[in-house]
C-alpha cells in the first residue's frame, strides 16, 4: 500500500501550510516567547530517535551517549562546572589582554580547534539513515545467518556517498555512489559495503592506491574537485583496460542518480553463504529500490551542483522526515560453490564482471526500510566505520583478490581516521550483540573492563570468555581448498577479457541512454588536455563499439581508430537499462507556479491531490509569504526556484509578464524573452521542458503559448480542469521522464 506523506513539521520549506505571519488577516497574534529561563535540551525530532544505550561489553558502564552528551539545564564546562558567561573572555580590565587562566576560553577554543577528523580517503561525502531489515526466510535454505531468517527484524544504518569529492563537494558529481549497510544482527555486526555500480575499476586491491591517485584532483593544484573529467583519470583507465567496464557505467546515467532512493546497490564481489551443515554456495548481492532506478540529465547535474549542492542529502532526509520511507529489496544471484568458481564462462572472482540477471535471476531475500534520520551528523554519519571483515555466521568471503585486499584496508584506515583501535566502541559502531572479547586498553578506551585474565586459556577468570561450541552458533570458517600452491604475483587468464562486458552494457542500453553515454564521454575527454590520453581512450571505445567511438571522436575532432579486438555475438541484458516501466512516486517534488492572485480553491485541491499521491507540492509564487488570501504560503519564489528541484512543474492559471516584486535584471539572464511571461518562469519552463519532465497547465493560463512551448508535445498537458490535468501529470511522472519528447535519431 502506498505510504501517505505525513504532515510536514517544519513549515513553509517543507511544503506545509505554515501559520500566517503576524499582522496578516487571519493569523494568530505574535506570541513567540524568547527563552527567559534555563530549558532542557531540545527533544529529538519525530524521525530522530535516541541512540541505543548499548554498552560494548554488554555490562552497564553507565555510557548513555545522549544523557552524557547533554544533561542538566545549565551551561557547563566539559567537566560539569556551571558557567555564567560564555560571551566574554576573562581580561585584565575590559580593554586589557586576555588572561591565560581563562579555562573556559581555552577549553572552548581548544576543543573547537580539534573538531575535525581526517575525512575518508575516498567516499568522504555522504549521507546516512537508520532503518530496519526484515528477512523473507527465502535464504534460510542456503545460509545459517540469523539476519535472513523469516520475519527477523534487524536494525541497520546505511551510508550513501560519492567516491571522489571531498566532504564539502557537490552531490551530483558524475561518480560512482557508495551504498554501505551495517546490519546490527543479533549474532554480531554484518557490513555489506557496496556501490551503485556492480563492477569495479581494478581486479587486484594492490591497484587501489593507483586508481584513487589518478581519479582524485591533480596533486599540484588540487583540481578538479569531485570529477573524473581530467587527464590523470583518463590516463589511468585508458592504460588499464580492465577499468573500461566500470567507466562506461560511470558515463551512463547511473553516474548521476536522481536520488539515493532511486539507486540500485551491489555487493560487487562474489560472497559465500553457508548453511548450518557447512554446505556453501556462491552469491552476488543486489539491492533493488522499490522506487525504481532513475537518473537526472547532465544539465540538471550541473545546475543542481550550483543551485543545490546538497540535493541528495536533502532528498533523503526530507523523504524520511515526510514519512516517505525508502525501501530496497535485498536479493541474491546464487551459484554452485565448485572448484572452478566460473559461471557460463564468467569468472566469479573477477570484480570487473557481472552475471546478467537473465542468466541468473536475482532472488529476493529481505526488505530494508530506512525510517529514521540521524540525530547528529558527526556522531553517526561521519563516525560510522564500515568494514568488509564484519561477517557473521552464515556469510563468508571468497578469494576475489579485490575483496581480499579490502579485508586489510578498512580496518587499517579507521586507525588514523578515528584515532585508534577502539572505534568499535563509538555508539554508531557498537554491535547490538553482546561483546566479550580480549581486546584491551588503547587510545579512547571507554569500556571499563573487569577481570584479570584477558587471555586464553586462563584459570584466574574461570577461563572466561569461553570459545563458542556449535550449539552457541559460532562463525563458520568454510574449509575452502586454497587453489594452487605456488606463491606468485599475477592474475588468471580469465581476468584478461576487458571489453566483452563493456560492450554487453552498451548493447543493453536504449537509444536515449546511448546518446547520454556518448555525450558524457565527449564531455569528459573534451576536458582532457593530453592528446595521447584522448587517443588511447578512443582506442578503448573502438573496442567497445565502433559507432560509439566514431561519435566521441567526431566531437573531439579526432580520427576514430579501428578496433583491435573482435567480438562474437553478445546477447544484451535488458535488466541493465533504466528506461521503461512505471514506478511509485513517493517523495517526488512538484513545483506549482502561481501568479499573484491564483484560484485558491483549485490550488488547495491540487496540493491535496499531489500530497495524496505521496508527493510534495511546492508553491512557486512571485514573492514569499502568503499566496492570495487563503491558507497557503509560497515555498519558493520565482527567484529561488530552479527546474532541477522539481520532478514536474504545473502552472496554475495566469502568470504575469514580469513580476513587480522583483526587479528583473538578473531574472533576464539566460532566459529567452517570451511575450508576456515573467522571464524567470520562462527559464523554469524552458529547462523543465528540455529535461523531459512533465508539465501541466490549466485555466486561462496561456502560459505554454506565452512561454513558446509546444502544447501537445509528449509529457505536456493543458486543460481547463485542474484536477484532470494533475491526474494526467501524475500518470506521466510514473515513467520518470517523457523521453519521447526528443526522439533520438538511433544513430548509435
Ligand atoms: Fe572501498 C570506503 C565501497 C574497493 C578501501 N569503500 C568505502 C566506502 C564504500 C566502499 C561504500 C564508504 C564506506 C562508508 O560510507 O564509510 N570499496 C567499495 C567497493 C569496492 C571497494 C564496492 C570494490 C568492490 N575500497 C576498495 C579497495 C580498497 C578500498 C580495493 C583498498 C584496497 N574503501 C577503502 C578505504 C575506505 C573505503 C580506504 C575509505 C573510508 C573507509 O574505508 O572506511 O579503506
TrEMBL record:
<keyword id="KW-0575">Peroxidase</keyword>
<keyword id="KW-0376">Hydrogen peroxide</keyword>
<feature type="binding site">
    <location>
        <position position="120"/>
    </location>
    <ligand>
        <name>heme</name>
    </ligand>
</feature>
<feature type="binding site">
    <location>
        <position position="406"/>
    </location>
    <ligand>
        <name>heme</name>
    </ligand>
</feature>
<dbReference type="GO" id="GO:0004096">
    <property type="term" value="F:catalase activity"/>
</dbReference>
<dbReference type="InterPro" id="IPR029062">
    <property type="entry name" value="Class_I_gatase-like"/>
</dbReference>
<dbReference type="Pfam" id="PF00199">
    <property type="entry name" value="Catalase"/>
</dbReference>
<feature type="binding site" description="axial binding residue">
    <location>
        <position position="410"/>
    </location>
    <ligand>
        <name>heme</name>
    </ligand>
</feature>
<keyword id="KW-0408">Iron</keyword>
<dbReference type="InterPro" id="IPR041399">
    <property type="entry name" value="Catalase_large_C"/>
</dbReference>
<dbReference type="GO" id="GO:0042744">
    <property type="term" value="P:hydrogen peroxide catabolic process"/>
</dbReference>
<dbReference type="Pfam" id="PF18011">
    <property type="entry name" value="Catalase_C"/>
</dbReference>
<dbReference type="GO" id="GO:0005829">
    <property type="term" value="C:cytosol"/>
</dbReference>
<dbReference type="InterPro" id="IPR002226">
    <property type="entry name" value="Catalase_haem_BS"/>
</dbReference>
<feature type="binding site">
    <location>
        <position position="208"/>
    </location>
    <ligand>
        <name>heme</name>
    </ligand>
</feature>
<keyword id="KW-0560">Oxidoreductase</keyword>
<dbReference type="InterPro" id="IPR020835">
    <property type="entry name" value="Catalase_sf"/>
</dbReference>
<dbReference type="GO" id="GO:0020037">
    <property type="term" value="F:heme binding"/>
</dbReference>
<dbReference type="Pfam" id="PF06628">
    <property type="entry name" value="Catalase-rel"/>
</dbReference>
<dbReference type="InterPro" id="IPR018028">
    <property type="entry name" value="Catalase"/>
</dbReference>
<feature type="compositionally biased region" description="Pro residues">
    <location>
        <begin position="37"/>
        <end position="46"/>
    </location>
</feature>
<dbReference type="InterPro" id="IPR043156">
    <property type="entry name" value="Catalase_clade2_helical"/>
</dbReference>
<dbReference type="GO" id="GO:0046872">
    <property type="term" value="F:metal ion binding"/>
</dbReference>
<feature type="binding site">
    <location>
        <position position="417"/>
    </location>
    <ligand>
        <name>heme</name>
    </ligand>
</feature>
<feature type="active site">
    <location>
        <position position="123"/>
    </location>
</feature>
<dbReference type="InterPro" id="IPR011614">
    <property type="entry name" value="Catalase_core"/>
</dbReference>
<dbReference type="InterPro" id="IPR024712">
    <property type="entry name" value="Catalase_clade2"/>
</dbReference>
<keyword id="KW-0349">Heme</keyword>
<feature type="domain" description="Catalase core">
    <location>
        <begin position="76"/>
        <end position="464"/>
    </location>
</feature>
<dbReference type="InterPro" id="IPR024708">
    <property type="entry name" value="Catalase_AS"/>
</dbReference>
<dbReference type="InterPro" id="IPR010582">
    <property type="entry name" value="Catalase_immune_responsive"/>
</dbReference>
<feature type="binding site">
    <location>
        <position position="159"/>
    </location>
    <ligand>
        <name>heme</name>
    </ligand>
</feature>
<feature type="region of interest" description="Disordered">
    <location>
        <begin position="1"/>
        <end position="96"/>
    </location>
</feature>
<protein>
    <recommendedName>
        <fullName>Catalase</fullName>
        <ecNumber>1.11.1.6</ecNumber>
    </recommendedName>
</protein>
<feature type="active site">
    <location>
        <position position="195"/>
    </location>
</feature>
<comment type="function">
    <text>Decomposes hydrogen peroxide into water and oxygen; serves to protect cells from the toxic effects of hydrogen peroxide.</text>
</comment>
<comment type="similarity">
    <text>Belongs to the catalase family. HPII subfamily.</text>
</comment>
<keyword id="KW-0479">Metal-binding</keyword>
<dbReference type="GO" id="GO:0006979">
    <property type="term" value="P:response to oxidative stress"/>
</dbReference>
Amino acid at each position: 500500500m502506498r505510504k501517505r506523506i505525513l504532515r510536514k513539521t517544519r513549515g513553509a520549506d517543507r511544503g506545509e501550510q505554515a501559520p500566517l505571519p503576524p499582522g496578516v488577516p487571519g493569523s494568530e497574534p505574535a506570541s513567540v516567547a524568547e527563552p527567559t529561563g534555563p530549558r532542557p535540551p531540545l527533544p529529538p525530532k519525530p524521525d530522530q530517535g535516541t541512540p541505543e544505550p548499548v554498552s560494548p561489553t554488554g555490562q552497564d558502564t553507565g555510557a548513555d551517549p545522549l544523557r552524557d552528551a547533554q544533561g542538566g539545564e545549565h551551561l557547563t564546562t566539559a567537566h560539569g562546572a556551571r558557567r555564567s558567561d560564555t560571551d566574554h573572555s576573562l581580561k585584565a580590565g575590559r580593554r586589557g589582554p586576555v588572561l591565560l587562566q581563562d579555562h573556559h576560553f581555552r577549553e572552548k577554543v581548544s576543543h573547537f580547534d580539534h573538531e575535525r577528523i581526517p575525512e575518508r580517503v575516498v567516499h568522504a561525502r555522504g549521507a546516512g539513515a537508520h532503518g530496519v531489515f526484515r528477512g523473507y526466510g527465502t535464504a534460510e535454505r542456503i545460509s545459517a545467518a540469523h539476519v535472513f531468517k523469516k520475519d527477523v527484524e534487524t536494525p541497520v544504518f546505511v551510508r550513501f556517498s560519492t567516491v571522489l569529492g571531498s566532504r564539502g563537494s557537490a552531490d551530483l558529481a558524475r561518480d560512482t555512489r557508495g551504498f554501505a549497510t551495517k546490519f546490527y544482527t543479533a549474532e554480531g555486526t554484518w557490513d555489506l559495503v557496496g556501490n551503485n555500480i556492480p563492477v569495479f575499476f581494478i581486479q587486484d586491491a594492490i591497484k587501489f592506491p593507483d586508481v584513487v591517485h589518478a581519479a582524485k584532483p591533480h596533486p599540484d593544484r588540487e583540481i578538479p574537485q569531485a570529477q573524473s573529467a581530467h587527464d590523470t583519470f583518463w590516463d589511468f583507465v585508458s592504460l588499464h583496460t580492465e577499468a573500461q567496464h566500470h567507466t562506461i557505467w560511470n558515463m551512463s546515467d547511473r553516474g548521476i542518480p536522481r536520488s539515493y532512493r532511486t539507486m540500485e546497490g551491489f555487493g560487487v564481489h562474489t560472497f559465500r553463504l553457508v548453511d548450518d551443515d557447512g554446505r556453501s554456495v556462491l552469491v552476488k548481492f543486489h539491492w533493488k529500490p522499490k522506487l525504481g532506478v532513475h537518473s537526472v540529465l547532465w544539465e540538471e547535474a550541473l545546475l543542481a551542483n550550483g543551485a543545490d549542492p546538497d540535493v541528495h542529502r536533502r532528498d533523503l532526509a526530507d523523504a524520511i522526515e515526510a514519512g516517505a520511507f525508502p525501501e530496497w529489496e535485498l536479493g541474491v544471484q546464487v551459484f554452485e560453490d565448485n572448484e572452478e568458481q566460473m559461471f557460463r564462462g564468467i569468472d566469479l572472482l573477477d570484480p570487473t564482471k557481472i552475471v546478467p540477471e537473465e542468466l541468473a535471476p536475482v532472488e529476493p531475500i529481505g526488505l530494508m526500510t530506512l525510517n529514521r534520520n540521524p540525530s547528529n551528523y558527526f556522531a553517526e554519519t561521519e563516525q560510522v566505520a564500515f568494514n568488509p571483515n564484519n561477517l557473521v555466521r552464515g556469510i563468508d568471503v571468497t578469494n576475489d583478490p579485490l575483496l581480499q585486499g579490502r579485508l586489510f584496508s578498512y580496518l587499517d584506515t579507521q586507525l588514523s581516521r578515528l584515532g585508534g583501535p577502539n572505534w568499535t566502541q563509538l555508539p554508531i559502531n557498537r554491535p547490538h550483540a553482546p561483546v566479550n572479547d580480549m581486546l584491551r586498553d588503547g587510545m579512547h578506551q571507554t569500556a571499563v573492563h573487569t577481570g584479570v585474565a584477558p587471555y586464553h586459556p586462563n584459570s584466574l577468570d574461570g577461563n572466561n570468555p569461553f570459545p563458542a561450541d556449535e550449539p552457541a552458533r559460532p562463525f563458520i570458517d568454510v574449509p575452502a581448498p586454497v587453489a594452487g600452491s605456488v606463491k606468485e604475483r599475477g592474475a588468471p587468464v580469465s581476468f584478461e577479457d576487458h571489453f566483452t562486458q563493456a560492450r554487453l552494457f552498451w548493447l543493453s542500453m536504449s537509444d536515449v541512454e546511448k546518446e547520454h553515454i556518448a555525450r558524457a564521454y565527449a564531455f569528459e575527454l573534451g576536458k582532457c588536455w593530453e592528446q595521447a590520453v584522448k587517443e588511447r581512450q578512443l582506442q578503448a571505445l573502438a573496442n567497445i563499439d565502433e559507432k560509439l567511438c566514431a561519435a566521441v571522436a567526431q566531437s573531439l575532432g579526432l580520427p576514430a581508430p579501428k578496433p583491435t579486438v573482435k567480438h562474437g555475438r553478445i546477447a544484451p541484458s535488458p535488466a541493465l537499462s533504466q528506461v521503461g516501466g512505471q514506478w511509485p512516486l513517493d517523495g517526488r517534488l512538484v513545483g506549482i507556479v502561481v501568479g499573484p492572485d491564483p484560484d485558491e480553491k483549485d490550488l488547495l485541491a491540487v496540493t491535496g491531490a499531489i500530497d495524496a499521491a505521496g508527493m510534495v507540492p511546492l508553491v512557486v509564487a512571485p514573492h514569499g509569504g502568503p499566496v492570495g488570501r487563503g491558507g497557503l504560503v509560497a515555498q519558493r519564489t520565482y527567484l529561488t526556484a530552479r527546474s532541477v528541484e522539481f520532478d514536474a512543474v504545473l502552472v496554475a492559471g495566469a502568470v504575469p509578464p514580469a513580476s513587480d516584486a522583483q526587479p528583473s535584471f538578473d531574472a533576464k539572464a539566460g532566459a529567452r524573452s517570451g511575450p508576456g511571461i515573467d522571464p524567470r518562469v520562462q527559464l523554469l519552463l524552458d529547462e523543465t521542458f528540455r529535461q523531459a519532465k512533465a508539465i501541466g497547465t490549466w485555466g486561462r493560463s496561456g502560459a505554454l503559448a506565452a512561454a513558446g512551448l509546444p502544447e501537445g508535445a509528449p509529457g505536456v498537458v493543458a486543460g481547463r480542469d485542474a484536477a484532470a490535468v494533475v491526474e494526467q501529470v501524475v500518470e506521466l511522472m510514473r515513467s520518470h521522464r517523457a523521453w519521447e519528447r526528443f526522439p533520438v535519431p538511433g544513430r548509435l
